[in-house]
Specification:
Organism: Kosakonia oryziphila
Number of helices: 20
CATH class of the largest domain: Alpha Beta
CATH topology of the largest domain: Alkaline Phosphatase, subunit A
CATH architecture of the largest domain: 3-Layer(aba) Sandwich
Radius of gyration: 29 Å
Strand content: 5-15%
Pfam family, one: CBP_BcsG
Largest sheet: 7 strands, mixed
InterPro entries: BcsG
Mean pLDDT: 85
Protein name: Cellulose synthase operon protein YhjU
CATH superfamily of the largest domain: Alkaline Phosphatase, subunit A
Keywords: Membrane, Transmembrane, Transmembrane helix
Distance between the termini: 86 Å
């Protein structure tokens, strides 16, 4: 008789299956390095959860290997989420326009994302990790850093990870009773027509401030008279709307001292275009007679008194529309017709010489030829009141000379455009025609880029993109302005332009023996710097910029 016994293996405790992070250590170390340099919008809690998923012990090796494969797309998506790159919503919304880019321009954009210094740094980090992982358990240090980051996130708003780095994540989401201070400002604008900024910069308070800003802007509008006086003097209003030109671009191109700027009577030093894309920028300008609206409301019907050119038409100004391009890309021409209130035909472009090809291969015409055609028009010669909207694409990213695939040098194009405008101004002076020229760029070119966006990328309306060189010049005056231009240093936007137009509607400024320039430029509407694209909002709060992406929390804009 034999005794048989059944032996049952006792399962090992889970800690026996601890395998560490393996290659994912490098993934997190790379993120820490980018965070230290200020290149990430890091989300500590999401990364901690992802790390816990990777560390959770699994008894079976097959499950462990399967987890690595599952983690790859999750890790990629999380990495993308931690960067400042456009989100899926933005890419989807811009997809049709990107499809219209030429292959050469797309290649140019891709190469801008290659930072050889950063690639070198990543290589050094990879070698260091491979070398050190032979002797030390890197996972222990990576986990410790991740826990530390999450602890820092809970310690207060906008906590800096490193002395020279950027905040680890969002500003605090709550601010107690302080938020009410901001919300209460919605009905009581402070001096300069701007809501108060007295509460701490928490996410709740910044949301309340944004709401109070738009509530305040809804109540503002410039007042146009029902009719002009009998002795009103006819003059032309020419609005030059230049794509891709900001003060930062002018400085980067070394053109701050160009003679063009001394030609103006009034120069705005802190004028906010409120967006970083052409269509919304043109709509905002054409609706300049009301306060600033949200991006969404740009594509809703506005009150009749908001449309600048419609207001001028009621006073006898005939509308004119000019472009140095065909206006087809992105439905630009359709947008300004549907949402800007400009319904007149586009001035004929037949016979104009293309000097550039745009990023989508369409022609960009010579600006001097377009402006000369305007001066030769019957309405100009006959001394009628006209209001002309002129949109220029000369400086847009990706423009190139015919027969050359490479993007034309921005500085050379800007230099040529400034020279042409300066010459055109001289011609206007000689003509003796009474003209008010308003130069208002759409947005900047992002020529230098920053930690959030590479050069040319404008998905986020940063201050360097939306602070545009807006200026005004009066021609044909009996008493022209003498000396340096009058600088407007208060935060301003399109309502200030509309207000200036209302102050000179009777045209008497052109016939006066002496012009009170201080009275003309004093107490202009001020507008807080709030800029918005479809999926990004940037505002200045207590002299610091903050950004909100895709409706998320606010974070300090990397400097």
């Amino acid at each position: 008789m034999t005794n048989s016994s059944t032996t049952t293996e006792t399962p090992l405790p889970l800690w026996q299956y601890w395998r560490g992070l393996s290659g994912w250590n490098f993934y997190f170390l790379l993120k820490f390095g980018l965070l230290w340099a200020g290149y990430l919008n890091f989300h500590p809690l999401l990364n901690l959860v992802f790390m816990a998923f990777l560390l959770m012990p699994l008894p079976r090796v097959k499950l462990h290997r399967l987890r690595h494969w599952v983690a790859l797309p999750i890790g990629f998506a999380l990495f993308w989420h931690d960067t400042w790159l456009p989100g899926p919503e933005s890419i989807m919304s811009q997809g049709s326009q990107v499809a219209g880019f030429s292959a050469d321009y797309l290649l140019d954009l891709v190469t801008r994302f290659i930072n050889w210094q950063m690639i070198g740094g990543v290589f050094v980090l990879l070698v260091a990790w491979l070398f050190l992982s032979q002797w030390i358990r890197v996972t222990v240090f990576v986990v410790a850093i991740m826990i530390w980051l999450n602890v820092l996130t809970l310690t207060g708003p906008a906590f800096n990870l490193w002395p020279g780095g950027q905040p680890t994540t969002t500003v605090a989401t709550t601010g107690g009773a302080a938020a009410a201070t901001v919300a209460a400002a919605s009905g009581t604008p402070v001096v300069g027509d701007m809501p108060a900024q007295t509460a701490p910069p928490t996410s709740d308070n910044l949301n309340a401030y944004l709401a109070s800003f738009y509530a305040s802007e809804e109540k503002r509008q410039s007042t146009f008279p029902a009719q002009l006086p009998a002795d009103a003097q006819p003059f032309d209003l020419l609005i030059i709307n230049i794509c891709s030109l900001s003060w930062d671009d002018v400085e980067a191109a070394g053109l701050m001292s160009h003679p063009l700027w001394s030609h103006f009577d009034i120069v705005f030093k802190h004028f906010n275009s409120a967006t970083a894309y052409s269509g919304p920028a043109a709509i905002r300008l054409l609706r300049a007679s009301c306060g600033q609206s949200s991006h969404k409301n740009l594509y809703q019907q506005a009150n009749n008194q908001c449309y600048l050119f419609d207001n001028l038409s009621k006073l006898g100004f005939s509308q004119q529309l000019m472009m140095d391009h065909n206006g087809e890309f992105g439905g630009f021409l359709k947008e300004i017709r549907d949402n800007g209130g400009v319904q007149v035909p586009l001035m004929a472009q037949s016979g104009l010489t293309p000097v550039l090809l745009s990023f989508d291969g369409s022609p960009v015409y010579d600006d001097t030829a377009v402006l000369n055609r305007w001066m030769e028009s019957d309405s100009f010669k006959q001394g009628q009141r006209t209001a002309t909207f002129y949109n220029l694409l000369t400086l847009h990213d990706g423009n190139h000379y015919p027969g050359d695939r490479k993007t034309a040098d921005y500085k050379l194009r800007a230099q040529k455009l400034f020279d042409e405008l300066d010459t055109f101004f001289t011609q206007l002076e000689k003509s003796g025609r009474k003209v008010m020229v308003v130069l208002v760029p759409e947005h900047g070119a992002a020529l230098r880029g920053d930690k959030m966006q590479v050069s040319g990328l404008r998905d986020i309306p940063s201050p360097s993109i939306t602070n545009v060189p807006t200026a005004i010049k009066f021609f044909g005056m009996k008493a022209p302005h003498q000396g340096a231009p009058i600088e407007i240093n208060q935060p301003s936007s399109f309502l200030a332009i509309s207000e200036l137009v209302t102050r000179v509607l009777d045209g008497k400024i052109f016939a006066e023996d002496s012009v009170n320039w201080q009275q003309l430029t004093s107490n202009l509407p001020q507008t807080a710097p709030v800029s918005e694209n479809a999926n990004a909002i940037v505002l200045q709060y207590q002299n610091k910029p903050y950004v909100r992406l895709n409706g998320g929390d606010w974070v300090p804009y990397p400097q």
